[in-house]
Amino acid sequence: MNKPIIYLLSDSLGETAEQVIKAALLQFGNGQSYKIYRTPYIQNKAQIKKILTQATQDRAIIGYTLVDPDLRQYVMEKSYEYKLEVIDIIGPMLDAMERLFEKKPKMKPGLNHQLDESYFKRVEAIEFAVKYDDGRDPRGIEQADIVLIGVSRTSKTPLSQYLAHKSLKVANVPIVPEVEPPRELFNTDPNKCYGLKISSGKLNGIRKERLKALGLKASANYAAMDRIDQELEYFDAIVDRLGCPVIDVTNKAVEETANIILQIQMTR
């Protein structure tokens, strides 16, 4: 038996059409294979007619994301003529939004791929988080939108990256009893600083797993309870000195902690 064929037409890259079609195909996860042929950058009816003719021969179905109403109408008319099964993926949404907003859509293909100001701001924030990760350069503290403070293994780095994807410049500072935090930390606005608090028991478990992953003994001083208590006591002293907000991350996912920070930022 020949594999079912799906043709995808788009006046842009066609990624949206492919994602929607593949999401639908997951509902038929019985191991049946299929072929997908994607044709991007459709500009005229001649291109459409050629593909629909081929689809008729292959007994295929058509999925399309075309913002031009004339091209969408042409696909529908030809599908009736050729007796093809077609799926207009974006057209009904455009029509509904036009009625809701009482205005015409721009009818410009590929708008979601344009490199606008927000895109560059997000890239800049991600690069910033990498550059000023783990206290590498204290000068980043003064430039940052947010400064994360915590002992080792309190998710400072992943949290920095998550917030960077929200276009926030984030620096993070590790707290170690033997090392005085950089003076820049105490000279910056405490309202943009966030202490990441964690219970000693939870931190003990996390550090033991980290040591195992590195092929080291779980009994190393890094995971010893006395050492952990010492670090957490020093952390408490630092955040008290700063007077900054403190978030308990003991049982929180990175996304939860990030949302708390974002909510606080919005109220300022």
Give a verbal description of the structure.
The structure is a single chain. The protein is α/β, with parallel strands linked by helices and 268 residues long. 48% of the residues lie in helices and 14% in strands. It is built from eleven helices and eight strands. Strands 2-1-3-4 form a four-stranded parallel β-sheet, with helices on both faces. It has a four-stranded parallel β-sheet with strand order 6-5-7-8, with helices on both faces. α1 links the parallel β1 (5-10) and β2 (35-39). The radius of gyration is 27 Å and the shape is elongated. It starts with a strand and ends with a helix. The model has no long low-confidence stretch (mean pLDDT 91).
What labels would you give this structure?
alpha/beta; 4-stranded parallel beta sheet
